[in-house]
C-alpha cells in the first residue's frame, strides 16, 4: 500500500509540474498572440517597412509619423553601453568573490550585492537625475546630463546584481579537480582562473550576461527618468534618447483607445518582445556550443 501511495504521489506531482510548465508556455504564447493581434490593426494603416525604418516618431503631429528607428537605436545603444560597463565589472567581481575573497569578506559582499537588486528602479532613476546627470554634464560640458550615457550607467548598476550572483554561482560550481589539475602542472591562480575556471563556467556566465541584457532591455522607469526622452536619431552617447519601453510607458496612459497611435504602441511592444527573444536565443546558442565543447 505504501509503495502504491508513493507511486501515485509521484505520478500526481509529475502531472502538476508538467502542467505548470505548459502553463508558462501558454502564458508566453498568449502574450505574443495578443501583441501580434493588436499590431495587425496598426499595420493595416502603416507599412511594416516604413514603421521599422522611419526616422521620426511623432504620432501626435498634424500628419502623424510612426518611424521607430530612433527608438530601436536608442534602446540598443543604452543597452550596449550598460553591458560594456556591467559585463567586465560583473564577471570580475564574481571571480573575486568565488576565488579570492576570504569567507568572512564573501559573507559580507554577496548579501550586499544581492540587496542592490531590491532597490526600486525609481530610486535608481532619481539618483541618476540628482547625482549622475550633473556629473556627466560637468565633465562633458553639457547643458544637462540626461542622455544615453546616464541611462547606460544606471542600467549597468541595475544589471550588476544579477550578473554577479549568477556568474559567481557558475564559477563556484566548477569542479575542484579542474583547478587541482591546473595547479599540478605549475599554473598560477590567475592562469587557472583565466584559462581553466572561467572557460569551464562559460555556460553559466553567458546565462548571467543574458539575464543582465534582459534586465537592461526591459527596464522602464530608470530610462524614462534619466535619458531625456528625445525621440530623435542619436549620434553619440551624450545625446538624449527615448527607448521603446519609455515610449510605451509615457504614451499608453494618454493615447485614445483603439486608435492608430494606440495600436502603434502594441507594435513597439512586439518588436521589443522579438528583440528580447532573439537575444535569449543567441545566448542559448552560445551556451549549447560551450556545453558541447566541454562534453567533447
Automatic annotation (TrEMBL):
ABC transmembrane type-1 domain residues: 72-283
Transmembrane segments: 12-37, 68-101, 113-136, 148-167, 196-217, 262-282
InterPro entries: MetI-like (IPR000515), MetI-like_sf (IPR035906), Phosphate_PstC (IPR011864), Phosphate_Transport_Permease (IPR051124)
Keyword Transmembrane helix attributed: yes
Pfam family, one: BPD_transp_1
Keywords on record: Cell membrane, Membrane, Phosphate transport, Transmembrane, Transmembrane helix, Transport
Subcellular locations according to the entry: Cell membrane
Membrane topology classification: Multi-pass membrane protein
Known role: Part of the binding-protein-dependent transport system for phosphate; probably responsible for the translocation of the substrate across the membrane.
Similarity section: Belongs to the binding-protein-dependent transport system permease family. CysTW subfamily.
PANTHER family assigned to the protein according to its UniProt record, in alphabetical order: PHOSPHATE TRANSPORT SYSTEM PERMEASE PROTEIN PST (PTHR30425), PHOSPHATE TRANSPORT SYSTEM PERMEASE PROTEIN PSTC (PTHR30425:SF1)
Protein name: Phosphate transport system permease protein
Organism of origin: Sphingobacterium daejeonense
Lineage: Bacteria, Pseudomonadati, Bacteroidota, Sphingobacteriia, Sphingobacteriales
Gene name, Swiss-Prot/TrEMBL: pstC
